[in-house]
Design a protein that fits this description.
Layout: H1 19-22, H2 25-30, E1 37-39, E2 41-42, E3 45-46, E4 56-57, E5 67-74, E6 77-83, H3 96-102, H4 107-125, E7 136-139, E8 144-147, E9 153-154, E10 159-168, E11 171-176, E12 188-191, H5 198-210, E13 214-225, E14 230-239, E15 253-258, H6 259-266, H7 282-292
Parallel strand pairs: 1-6, 10-14
Antiparallel strand pairs: 1-4, 2-3, 5-6, 7-8, 8-9, 10-11, 10-12, 11-15, 13-14
Helix pairs in contact: 6-7
Length: 294
């Protein structure tokens, strides 16, 4: 259940993560029965049925040398994802099929898939201890790894990313990265750095990428983003000036847009000055939130 008025895509999962089960090997083993369900993945991408839903099989369909990640309980059935020995982890290549899937899966299943993808990807890319280099093994039902050498315990990482709008005299700042499709503009974004608060990260990123100083940073909502393991933290702010100095290594183009221009883009009008972020991106929710306040 969402605790915010905004419910971004990839949130709203109804599975019980059941920490009390995943830390108890005997209880977890008891749930590995004929009722348990195994998420069908092709690498990191989901198999989707003709009805547009995730495909599940039984644990018997897992490869003999695979490991099982416990996703949680739903309808008193344990749900698992499979970590195949050959799984290499994520790449940075754009996959249009995944974007189509993000727009079509039901909200609760999309949230479940997002968590599963993040966990499988993390395990595939962290098979060795970062402290001593020895091989690590899955523990706590797949929610940690334990080093076979020094005994260190490692947990799935989440990388905080601020994504933000800044307003000046009724207009909002949007930009586009070189990798974006033609004419697509979105909110600016950047990783939170060590020793930095969310508000500080928003102010720093807007200064570094657009050359503007801001005040009154406000949190709006958040979204887990499993490509590979980010938490998007959506914020708004007020700019002290509309004069831009772009970091062209990050931002190809940026500009200030009125509420009327943003509404036209959100409605998909051909005459709109830009193409809005897709509905499954929290930047889309952030723009709706800004428009509602106008």
């Amino acid at each position: 259940m969402s605790l915010s008025l905004i419910a971004p895509a990839l949130t709203g999962g109804r599975i019980d993560r059941a920490d009390q089960v995943r830390v108890d090997p005997d209880r977890l083993a008891g749930y590995m029965n004929w009722k348990a369900k195994l998420l069908t993945l092709n690498g990191l991408e989901p198999e989707v049925s003709v009805e547009g839903r995730l495909v599940w099989h039984s644990l018997a369909d897992a490869a003999p040398d695979s490991e099982l990640i416990f996703l949680g309980l739903m309808d008193d059935k344990a749900h698992f994802a499979e970590l195949k020995r050959s799984e290499p982890g994520s790449s940075l290549h754009y996959n249009p099929r995944v974007w189509q899937m993000l727009a079509s899966l039901p909200a609760d299943e999309l949230a479940l898939y997002g968590g599963a993808r993040t966990l499988v990807d993390w395990h595939a890319r962290h098979r060795f201890c970062s402290l001593c280099g020895a091989a690590s093994t899955m523990s706590k039902g797949g929610w940690s790894r334990t080093c076979s050498g020094c005994g260190a315990e490692h947990f799935p990482r989440v990388d905080p990313v601020t994504i933000m709008l800044s307003e000046y005299q009724g207009k909002v700042l949007l930009g586009r990265q070189p990798r974006f499709p033609a004419r697509r503009f979105s909110a600016l974004a950047g990783f939170v750095e060590p020793g930095e608060g969310i508000e500080e990260a928003v102010a720093r990123e807007l200064w570094e990428e657009a050359g503007i100083r801001v005040r009154n940073v406000r949190y709006v909502a958040s979204q887990p983003w499993p490509f590979p393991s980010s938490l998007m933290i959506a914020c708004t702010s007020e700019a002290l000036s509309d004069e831009l100095t772009l970091d062209t290594t990050e931002i190809e183009e940026a500009g200030w847009f009125s509420a009327a221009e943003v509404r036209a883009a959100m409605a998909g009008e051909e005459t709109a000055p830009f193409i809005a972020p897709p509905p499954f991106a929290i930047a889309h929710d952030l723009l709706k939130h800004w428009l509602d306040a106008q």
